[in-house]
Amino acid sequence: MNRIPHWIDNTTYDDPSARTSPVFDPAVGAQSGEALMASDADVDRAVASSLAAFPAWRDTPVTARQRIMFRYRELVDSHRYDIAKALTAEHGKTIDDSLGEVQRGLEVVEFACGIPHLLKGDFSEQVSTGVDTLTIRQPLGVVAGITPFNFPAMVPMWMFPMAIACGNTFVLKPSEKDPSPSMLLAELFADAGLPPGVFNVIQGDRVAVERLLAHPDVSALSFVGSTPIARHIYATGTANGKRVQALGGAKNHMVVLPDADMDLAADAAVSAGYGSAGERCMAISVVVAVGDAGDKLIEAVDQRIGELRVGPGSDDGSQMGPLVTAAHRDRVRGYIDAGVASGAALVADGRTLTVDGHEEGFFIGPTLFDSVTPDMSIYTDEIFGPVLSVVRVDSYTEAIELINDNPYGNGTAVFTNDGGAARKFQNEIAVGMVGINVPIPVPLSFYSFGGWKESIFGSHAIYGPDGIHFYTRQKVVITRWPDPIHRGVDLGFPQHG
Ligand code: NAD
């Protein structure tokens, strides 16, 4: 049995008496390994290691930190296939999709290679007679990251390269469902010359999370996962005096106006609805068809569904893999049952799919519902599977109101050839990331990623410029050197130079 340990001080750490959690190969439906589940003492060991490493890492010249980031960039680049393979083996997504995930994570490392420039402060000369003001950005200390199963390489890389380049030390708690990619990422960072303790990985579940939330030596926490847990992390972490950013779940709508290019819209709906089996926080799960767009669109989407190749992620020919666990597959199946029971029209039914030679795999085929209404659970809940719901509305105004009334606000898109309609959308929609004829509007690493409403808790989005702000504190320094003008005692606030 492949045992997945912790990573502390640039080496593996195993605790023979630890609890473990099973890790599966979702394509065959069998257990492939077991991950250690950290105790409070294991978390304390990792945090102590990161705390000890912090002073020297904070004082390491920013150019030396930059050189390590460049070496890391090269190592992740040259091992991208190994990381992708480990990712597909535990998550199930296709190798091609895994390679894309590694690429998007690598782009954050590339952004972090510019850290000397990104940490530059401001300077104002002569704000008063002989007085200058400057700002500097300093690291926070030990920062923790807690990440979801659906992007086991990219989401950790949204966090730790930024935090570490800024001079913090980092403890990562990856998802217990697919923990191996984090171990590879940590080993490569050690190979790049990162000192021991600067990046530790602790395998675990809610026990480890609760200890990180309570630990007095953890200064800040980045979380990405579902909304109920994000809310809990934010409330508990901030109550314990920590800086917290917590990104939550989503229900992303794609509006299709009658003037849209229907082939483009259908390609986009299928790609964004069923890519990674719908297990993406930016997946499209609701298509809002305005006016007579519905009939044409559903026909085009259904035809494309019939051509999709579902199979093991490791097969080159597969376009969509299995779901991550049997429990998750059963949950998604339950939503399809509920959709049928509530009266939605089932156009394509993924429950009947079997994959030859992989009968025990956690597969569900692409599923399409028409005539979905906002009171149905397939509309209200984040299903996180290959289930696309079409809601039909009479007007564009109704489509915008539907999205703005939704508690989530991660991503959304509009498909139209009308520039005025597109501009109205970008202006009025209450969602953090908006696509105009782009179904999954994920910003590149030099912008920041973050939704609105219940898709995020805290005031900082992740990576990019917000990442620099989140992982550093600003200090303002006001200087005056002795000069010939001695003003004497003055108890008032200065009014002018
Ligand atoms: P999850 O919330 O179940 O788990 C996320 C992390 O929290 C994991 O590390 C897990 O071990 C830990 N955790 C789970 N239950 C906990 C508890 N009760 N107490 C403390 N910690 C707990 O999420 P998931 O199923 O791994 O990932 C899917 C979710 O993540 C979806 O809701 C998806 O939308 C969301 N997500 C959001 C974004 C974003 O950027 N907004 C990105 C990726 C995924």
Tell me what the structure shows:
With 497 residues, the protein is α/β, with parallel strands linked by helices. The chain folds into two domains: 2-248 and 455-477, Aldehyde Dehydrogenase, Chain A, domain 1 (3-Layer(aba) Sandwich), CATH 3.40.605; 252-436, Aldehyde Dehydrogenase, Chain A, domain 2. It contains 16 helices and 23 strands. It has helices at 40-58, 62-78, 80-91, 95-112, 115-118, 154-165, 180-191, 206-214, 227-239, 262-274, 293-307, 326-341, 377-380, 396-405, 419-428, 464-470; strands at 2-4, 6-8, 11-13, 19-25, 30-37, 123-128, 131-139, 142-146, 169-173, 199-201, 218-224, 243-247, 252-256, 284-290, 345-348, 367-370, 387-393, 408-409, 411-415, 433-436, 452-453, 456-457, 472-480. The strands form six sheets. The chain has a seven-stranded mixed sheet with strand order 15-16-17-14-13-19-20, sandwiched between helices. The protein has a six-stranded mixed sheet with strand order 10-9-8-11-12-22, sandwiched between helices. Strand 13 (252-256), helix 10 and strand 14 (284-290) form a beta-alpha-beta unit. Helix 3 crosses helix 4 (95-112), helix 3 packs antiparallel against helix 7 (180-191) and helix 10 (262-274) packs across helix 11. It is globular, with a radius of gyration of 25 Å. The chain starts with a strand and ends in a 17-residue tail after the last strand. The protein binds nicotinamide-adenine-dinucleotide. Nicotinamide-adenine-dinucleotide (NAD) is lined by residues 146-151, 155, 173, 175-176, 205-206, 209, 224-226, 229, 247-250, 281, 382, 384, 410, 451, 455.
